[in-house]
Write a structure and sequence with these properties.
Helix content: 40-55%
CATH architecture of the domain at 50-81 and 99-214 and 221-252: Roll
Shape: globular
Strand content: 5-15%
Largest sheet: 10 strands, antiparallel
Number of strands: 10
Number of helices: 28
Distance between the termini: 31 Å
Oligomer: single chain
CATH class of the domain at 50-81 and 99-214 and 221-252: Mainly Beta
Length: about 800
Amino acid sequence: MSAPAGSGKGKQIVYTPPGSPSPPGSLHDLSDYDESEYNTITHTSSGRGVKLLHTKSKVYVHPTRNAKDNIPGFIALVQQKPPPSASSSSTSFASSTIPVHSLLLAWLPESQLGNAYSTYVKVDLIDDSSDTRETYLVPPPPAVSTSASATGTYAFAVPVDQIYSLILRPPNSGWTFGSLIINTKNGDSFPALFFHDKECASTIEQTRKRIRNFDPFGEDGNQFWGGEEVLRWMKKYARVEHSRLERDTYLVEPQSSDEKPWVPKPKDPQDNFAGSSANIKAPNVANIFAGGFDKVFKEVKWNVLERLSRVTNLTRQTAAEIADSPNVPPQLRRLLKTPEVAALQDEFDSARIYLARWAMAIAEQADKEKRKTVWSSSDVMRMEDSELGQFEILDIAVSRDTRDRKPLTLKEWNSWLDKDGKLTRRVDDVKERIFHDALDPGARKEIWLWLLGIYPWDSTLDERKAIMASRRDEYVRLKANWWNELPAKLKDEHFIDQKNRIEKDVHRTDRTVPIFAGENCPHPDPDSPFAEVGTNEHLEQMKDMLITYNEYNTTLGYVQGMSDLLAPIYAVMQDDAMAFWAFCQFMKQMERNFLRDQSGMRNQLVTIDHLVQLMDPKLYLHLKAADSADFFFLFRMLLIWFKREFAWEDVLVLWETLWTNFYSSQFVLFIALALLEKHRNVVMNNLTGFDTVLKYFNELSGTIDLTDTRIRAEHLFKQFEKKVEYTDRKSVQQRETESISWKSLTSVPGTPATPNSTSAAPVGAPPTPASRPGPRPGQRAATSAAIPGAAQKKNEELPTISPELRKLLSREVITAEGQL
């Protein structure tokens, strides 16, 4: 007996055996040489037979919410034989051009395929990238072209030229299965089809092949799924247009009348606002205050008005909200309130976003000029009187604390070591200092080895010397393993692919940083695409380290993006062995971001989904309405820890802050939350679609203030921690109140007592607040004491604290092996 398909992780894919035999006299598995026999296969009602062009298995119909009722089947693209009356004028099957009117898009349950089942499986597994492939003929699908006539088995076949649109929704953090909905020109729609990709052998194999070319920094970092393959089939034989208004909608063979409301015409290339708002450059805010605001203001005033005069639709409300901000300088407020701006309507998102971002940048710079920014743990935020209350936007004025907090220098660090080189300070005190003050550049090479776990916190100087000597020897051995076998390795296709990928990535990583800039030596590989350009010794060291890591971590290997993680470490260490092992330690924490199935990234996006729902439900509802609640616009930021969002020096500060795990091992999610809250007003007032949200956050790269973001993130964490503690305390109080009420009830004469009612734990009681290894300085433990007078109040509806949210309170690093 065959095991059910997809019954367990890592098990072999098993297809559901077919139910009934195929119709008498049916033929299939015919090669091109047997195609002449195709004339014997005809549909009983139309006189047509079908050729199976493409198919995809494990595509389900979900009739009910119960998973056991799901019906597995195949989606297929088949070609009908032209009817006899049209045979003379229609394109034959032997022709390389297939007319659209001869194609059917069908779905058939596995149980109805009979003997043709094996043919469907075979075609599904064929790599159709090959120029030559056999022809496979199968019994025709049911002649069902409308949902009204769908059979009880949900099988259908609809002519491609009768399809109006396809709605393809890829899998995301909230829904495991991607789906396809077919809408016809008659207004019919068929059962939604769900792609169970983890059960589909062909999708699994295609995903493995694409992994080698995975580009998380491309336009689309989504994982491959079966719906993409169906879309590729359709585009191969028919004209398919992607709607710019509905990102999941594709029009099939659209007429001009169909395109107008769905596919916007290209904008006039002479229009300054055509295309991306990235083409609209805001004035240099720093120069505004360096050279005097009034002077620069006069220079940009008419330029701004000239650009905005081309926009026919900028909302009066948007301009008014920006103009009324007390942080915007009065000159800019006057500009925004002029009739020229106030009269503009709301049509081009690029202008609206540009104006909002520019106003925010000027307000920030003006505020910085008023006072010196000092990082302080005594910063406070505005909160409501309620201990739990409704979450509000942080209104943080950076502390004007006069304390001159300086980065930790190597001299001060050495003063913390005793005569044996052992640290005399509490580890939590050291981490607190680094978290708030960061490190002096001269101290990073030494202290990063402690933060990354190369050196134990209780090690002596002699022990650290022994550790480094051993690590150096080990690195030399690992590198020699592939270096000495290079001629043989260069015959391995996978090794060549990885080496070429590393070569390409390294040559485009941080080339503006002085250590990686320029080419001062010839390239050692004459076949390299960079051979004519040349290279430098630091790029070559980076390549060797990444190839060594590819051979060292045989499970994962090298994945694009890892060069971004290695570059800062190598630039600080400038020692290949030290940098390699520091990178390996860092990758223990980051490896889950690069898992082939993207489960690590998906878990983090789910966590931030829960976090935003808890901390700012209004923002979450807006993002959901904007089709952005999957938080994909944060994907790149989380993947490489904001490496491309902050300036180089800020990245070094941010990473050493995160490596402390002072508050949480996932504090990077609070950095992301801080960024969301910083730009909340712009998002809620101006961004209404997936494309605009993604575009806006991508364009923040290089403009984010790290100090402000860190302060916001810390306050958000404290607010989150307070919410969890309050929720747990109130939950305990409510259970105690219910217990007291029950005891009072059972004390009434004649009322039977429930056995063990006083000792049994309440069902559904939330877990106690998550603990951390070692108390954090100033941390208060949650109390379970009941609040006086609470017994008289109606039980308060408490937020749900999911397991993902509770993990945010832990300082234990989550690894690829340790994640759920």
